[in-house]
Automatic annotation (TrEMBL):
PROSITE patterns: BULB_LECTIN. GO terms for molecular function: carbohydrate binding. Keywords: Lectin. This is D-mannose binding lectin.
Length: 152
């Protein structure tokens, strides 16, 4: 029985341990501390036809930035959990926010009437909710055409 285990069991055990052993970092001969790797951005992008309804929010990849149509009819950007921007003249009428096919970013009331717009008609390509605390509409050349100006 021991011969059977040695002949068959050890190679299988060794193969099973290879991924674990391969993931252990090799010893570094230098004593200098390693530089921290840059943090990758994970901004959220929304394209034409994207709709945000009352009591819903769009969030940046790291969760730091939240753009919300609130239950009280306000349209607010939160940065680090605090209100940093709100669409002027919207409260208490906001029912939905739409990044439209025509590139404009618009807030509508419950009757479908626009109550605020970013003014990006035929300019906007996508809306980005960014990790730095900003919401930005970019054109097709990836240049900003509108922003909340709340980023770091």
């Amino acid at each position: 029985m021991i011969k059977h285990f040695v002949r068959r069991g050890l190679p299988v055990l060794a193969l099973a341990l290879l991924p674990v052993l391969a993931s252990v970092p090799a010893a570094d001969a230098s004593s200098a501390p390693a530089a921290a790797a840059p943090t990758a951005r994970s901004d959220s992008h929304f394209y034409g036809g994207s709709t945000l309804h009352k009591n819903q929010a769009w969030t940046s990849g790291n969760g730091r930035t939240v753009l919300r149509v609130q239950s009280d009819g306000n349209f607010v950007l939160y940065k680090d959990g605090r209100a940093a921007w709100q669409a002027p003249g919207v409260w208490p009428k906001a029912n939905s926010a739409v990044f439209q096919e025509d590139g404009n970013f618009v807030v509508y009331d419950s009757n479908g009437n626009p109550v605020w717009a970013a003014g990006t008609w035929h300019k906007g390509h996508y809306l980005s909710i960014q990790d730095d605390g900003n919401a930005v509409v970019y054109n097709s050349a990836n240049q900003p055409v509108w922003a909340t100006n709340t980023g770091d």
